[in-house]
Write a structure and sequence with these properties.
Blueprint (H helix, E strand, L loop, with lengths): L1 E6 L6 H11 L3 E3 L2 H7 L8 H19 L5 E6 L6 H15 L4 E8 L2 H7 L3 H6 L6 H14 L14 E5 L5 H12 L2
Parallel strand pairs: 1-3, 1-4, 2-3, 4-5
Helix pairs in contact: 1-8, 2-3
Length: about 190
């Protein structure tokens, strides 16, 4: 069982890289908006109940995959490195897979802000993430979140052996996916 965690700021390309990685491996993609978009029409993700349901669905999916005969899972996440609860959440998710003998791989993506703002408007992103279709709101959220939280790690902060950081500002998603596959021999 392989668990690949792709993390980085909004619109860095996590889902698109995950989709490309899924194409060239036997891993399944479970991007973070799959649960957000499921819950949002009934309970906005910003509400306590929306967050509770998203968390519940994700945990159930992680546990089901970790005990299945699947090759593994790719999950995407916006990790606020200056928030202790985010660290605890990541550790709890990894523990689900590791407790069943799974291997965990960390992939951190970073890209220039201008490129992320451009990607935030891409038809592909908007097709898969209806809650991002209000471009003005989404762009404002991207900029405000970047100012409020530290969304990329500091050098040496992540201590895991299976870790790679990729600046994908000028790389295609399929190139990044190939780098991930080859680095971790997926």
């Amino acid at each position: 069982m392989n668990f690949v965690l792709i993390f980085g700021p909004q619109a860095v390309g996590k889902m698109t890289v995950g989709q490309e990685l899924q194409k060239i491996t036997d891993l399944k993609l479970f991007h973070n908006h799959m649960t957000i978009e499921l819950v949002n029409p009934i309970f906005n993700y910003g509400t306590e109940e929306g967050k509770r349901l998203v968390s519940l669905f994700r945990k159930e999916m992680f546990e089901a995959v970790a005990t299945s005969d699947l090759e593994g899972l790719i999950f995407t996440y916006v990790w606020a490195f200056d928030q202790r609860p985010d660290w605890e959440y990541i550790e709890s998710v990894c523990a689900i897979f590791e407790s069943h003998g799974g291997s965990v791989f960390f992939v951190e993506l970073e890209a220039d802000t201008e490129e992320r703002i451009k990607r935030n408007k891409s038809p592909h992103r908007l097709e898969h993430k209806p809650t991002k279709r209000d471009i003005a709101w989404s762009e404002e959220q991207l900029i405000n979140t970047m100012a409020q939280y530290r969304l990329n790690s500091l050098y040496g902060e992540i201590k895991r052996e299976n870790y790679i950081r990729i600046n994908n500002t000028n790389f295609s998603a399929d190139k990044v996916a190939t780098i991930i596959k080859e680095t971790f021999k997926l």
